[in-house]
Amino acid sequence: MSSTPSGSRTYPQIYAVVRRIPRGRVATYGQIARLAERPGAARLVGYAMHRCPPGLPWHRVINAGGRISLPAGSTGALAQRRRLEAEGVRFAGDRVDLKRYGWSPNGAPE
DNA sequence: CGTGTGACGCGAG
DNA sequence: CCTCGCGCCACAC
């Protein structure tokens, strides 16, 4: 237990965390990495998201700056923003207020 | 079986 | 506000 040989479990773990993000809320890569028991591996989350399987609310994952990481103007970025707005997430310019829409893994029911 | 790399994070200048 | 650089880990070639 203490040493969770997550090893190859890392990806599934990341996906599991992303799936837990409630609708209308967003989580940052670093936060997900931490919840996936891989603190500091934010890049891994990004890597995992790049390979995200279908059915995953990948659009609820943004960077710590509250911005969409995908290249601005790219199809993915536009799709992500559109989905978030469809869930009630408002954008301040090209940024999201994490204080307001940031997901609290501890108990914050929406 | 080694190297590079990437939807990141953050301190410093 | 910006840029620069290091750390980080699994996966692709």
Layout of helices and strands, plus pairs?
Elements: H1 10-20, E1 27-28, H2 29-35, H3 42-50, E2 61-62, H4 75-86, E3 91-92, E4 95-96, H5 98-101
Parallel strand pairs: 1-2
Antiparallel strand pairs: 3-4
The protein binds a DNA duplex (13 and 13 nucleotides) through residues 7-8, 10-11, 28-30, 33, 38-52, 58, 61-65, 68-71, 76-77, 80.
Helix/strand order, N-terminal first: HEHHEHEEH
Fraction of residues in β-strands: 5-15%
Q: Give the averaged pLDDT, no decimals.
A: 90
What is the SS-derived class?
Answer: mainly alpha
Shape: globular
Largest sheet: 2 strands, parallel
How many β-strand stretches? 4
- CA-CA gap between termini: 30 Å
Q: What radius of gyration results from the CA coordinates?
A: 14 Å
- The amount of helix comes to 25-40%
Residue runs with pLDDT of under 50 for 5 or more positions: none
Strand order of the largest sheet: 1-2
Number of helices: 5
